[in-house]
Amino acid sequence: MEKSSTVSSGIGDLSETGDTPYAGTLMSVLMCPPDGGIWSVLTCVLGFVAMMILDGVCLSLFLYDSRVGMTEQVSSPMPALEHLAVIGFCHYFIETFSCAYINRYGFRYCLFFGSTLSVTWITLLKLFVDYVVDELPFGQFYYFFLAAVGGIGIGMVKMAFVVLLSSLFVVKREFAHLCLHMGSFTGMLLIPPFTEFLILNGSWQSSMYLHLGLTSFTLMFWLLVATPVPLYVCEETSDDENLHHLSDDSESDGIVDTVADIKLRFVPLTVETQLCGSCRPYVSVGLNANWLYANKTIRRMCVRNLTNMFKGSTIGARPMYQQDIMFDGNVMVLAANLKALNRFEEFSAKMISVVTIDDINEEKYNRCNLCSIAVTRVLKSMFNMSIWLDGKFVVLAASNALIYSSCLLPVLFIKGTAGQKTSAEAMITLIACCFGLLIGRGIGFYLHETSSKGIPLYHVSSVLIANGLSMIVCCTTNDFSKIILFFGCYGFLWGYYKSMQYAVFQHCIFPLKKFTNIRGQISLVRAVSSCAGLMTAIIILEETSEIGYVYEFAGLLTAAGGVCLGLLEPVCRRQMNAANKVGSKHPNIVFDIKTKTLREIIIV
Questions:
Q1: Is 62 a member of any domain?
Q2: Of residues 447, 172, 459, the one with CA closest to residue 331
Q3: Domain-ending residue, one of 226, 258, 289
Q4: In terms of DSSP H, where are the helices of 302-422?
Q5: What pLDDT does residue 424 have?
Q6: How confident is the model over 411-440, as a mean pLDDT?
Q7: Is residue 139 included in any domain, yes or no?
Q8: Which residues contact residue 427 at a Cβ distance below 8 angstroms, ignoring those fewer than 6 apart?
Q9: Which of 5, 122, 482, 561 has its CA 20 to 30 A from that of 104?
């Protein structure tokens, strides 16, 4: 049975900020992700390459630190591990600001400035180490300044691809984000061993030139990616005078089609587009997703690429106004009635991006305003500190702090102290770990992301606990073959975990409207914890000169993170039992095209 009640149009799509100051001037823009096509696939490939280069280059920096097994061939004053700690902090910290920047200026600007900062980081790092750093006062400070520049650039590029692929793919979103993870793990597999080869057989300077060349390759990505085009949808009527203001160009005119016996015009929203009729505060249209994907003509209108990127500047996309935009898994698991859905249906409320008339005017006439609505609305949502009053979120944040403070420590200290491992042994161990990452991510994708079935939280918790135990047990042996096995197991379990890291949203522990807020706060938690975890591991190594203590430290943190996450399972069970007693009501939002209102439908 269905229970319906009319809700204010657009309020369900607004990120929760504590108030609704835009309710009187709302309009809707239909985002119709192409979910395919050559330009969208090319964007996936570019995301794969970008992650491969940036993560591979970052991981390679630990090879320049003489404390973890390198020889006199590397410039000894370079604090490479501390450099990586600052990069990790800035990389996660800038994510929220990158989202606001994307919402204001778009994906191409974010990719361009991010790649420019990344190239500047490698270039200046090479010059400072070579010529300048020993002659400057407070020379070590410049390493940390450059690390901040590099971390910001890397974070901007990676977040731009995360949001962009979520905008271009809905039905196949899990495939798109799989490409990003596989690119990251492939870079970790290929670039550090080749860097080690250049250091040993050439010089460390030649390996820096390799990193500079690879990073420079990302400078062209902003030109080649496809970006989504928002569609303004209005009812086609013979007496609508505003339709005559549209230009004669076929693309500007859009196309006319009939949906539910209503003739509608779909117009790409550009700076020249005249709004159809008065700007009334209701959603223009909500459509069945199957109809959208069957209509290839509309799908072709919905991307800008290299061939038409300068043809009419588009406005109104505002990707961060969509509640699910940063969810990188199978969106089917977000539906309330999973068992009833055998195909992708009625996802229109998620595809509609609710903007305001002030948003549109701001893009047209005031693009230089730094404190724009697009920026402040996103920052207020993602930095809403009231989420910390929720005990369930505190447990989730604690688990993420423990997990991300330890996730890369075994890899960064894989060489051990000087003389503990040969170069070949260290690289073989790293390759085994990276193959484990790739295999674990692939198996996790096949088992969990190709299905709409929810993942039990105890399953996620047990994977993390096993991951931590693999590192603790690794400290008990000096047998090289067993060390390879344990590192391969560690990589496999970490890659497997990445396929189900957002499982908490499949159990209604947190509503989808909180996802942007939670994601922003978790980014801050990961920034602080990743930096603090690496700095603590450095202190442990310097105080004990035993790499085994670092592995034990990492293993204990990961296992503790798994235990913390497992604490959410009893909460989930109590909520499900309570829901069963009252009829298991799950709210869902759909659009009633006849009354032009959103309706809250509760499946019983």
A1: yes
A2: 172
A3: 226
A4: 348-351, 357-365, 373-382, 391-404, 409-412
A5: 87
A6: 88
A7: yes
A8: 192, 193, 196
A9: 122
Q: Are 67 and 215 part of one and the same domain?
A: yes
Lowest-confidence segment of 370-384, 395-409, 527-541 by average pLDDT: 370-384
| Residue 171 and residue 209 in one domain | yes
Q: Does 404 share its domain with 534?
A: yes
Evaluate whether residue 7 is within a structural domain: no
Say yes or no to pLDDT of 405 above 90. Answer: yes
Instruction: State whether 58 and 167 are in the same domain.
Output: yes
Query: 29-43, 166-180, 231-245, 498-512: which range is least confident on average?
Result: 231-245
Cα(408)–Cα(396) distance, integer angstroms: 20
| Crossing angle for the helix pair 139-168 and 38-60, to the nearest 10 degrees | 160
How many secondary structure helices (H) and strands (E) does the chain include?
Answer: 21, 10
Q: Which residue has the tokens 């914890």?
A: 529
Are the beta carbons of 363 and 314 closer than 8 angstroms?
no
In the block, which residue shows the tokens 């410039």?
75
**Count of beta carbons in the 10 Å neighbourhood of residue 21:** 13
Give the ranges where 415-456 is alpha helix by DSSP (H): 423-444
- Whose tokens are 């979120």? That residue is 393
Residue 550 pLDDT > 70, yes or no?
yes
Identify which of 496, 471, 475, 460 has the alpha carbon closest to the alpha carbon of residue 411. Answer: 471
d(CA 403, CA 386): 23
Judge if 198 and 61 occupy the same domain.
yes
State the Cα–Cα distance between residues 523 and 94, nearest whole angstrom: 8
Q: Are strands 262-268 and 586-592 parallel, antiparallel or unpaired?
A: unpaired
Domain match, 323 and 271 both: yes
Domain that holds residue 98: 36-226
Angle formed by the axes of helices 547-566 and 457-474, nearest 10°: 170
Yes or no: say if 331 and 524 are a contact pair by the CB < 8 Å rule.
Answer: no
Alpha-carbon gap, residue 56 to 194, rounded angstroms: 10
**Structure tokens given for 78:** 């370079």
In a shared domain, residues 43 and 168: yes
Burial 210-235 (b: 16+ CB within 10 A, else e): bbbebbeebeebbeebbbbbbbbbbe
Q: What is the CATH number of the domain that holds 483?
A: 1.20.1250.20
Whole-angstrom CA distances from 30 to 210, 262, 274, 298, 378 are 44, 16, 16, 11, 19
Q: Over 60: is that where the pLDDT of 604 sits?
A: no
Kindly report the number of other CB atoms within 10 A of residue 369's CB atom. Answer: 12
In a domain? residue 602 = no
What's the distance, CA 119 to chain centroid? 22
Number of domains in the chain: 3
Write down the H helix ranges in 445-514.
Answer: 457-474, 480-498
Q: pLDDT tens digits, residue range 50-66?
A: 999 999 999 998 888 77
Alpha-carbon distance values, 197 to 79, 202, 204 (Å): 21, 8, 10
299 and 411 belong to one structural domain = no
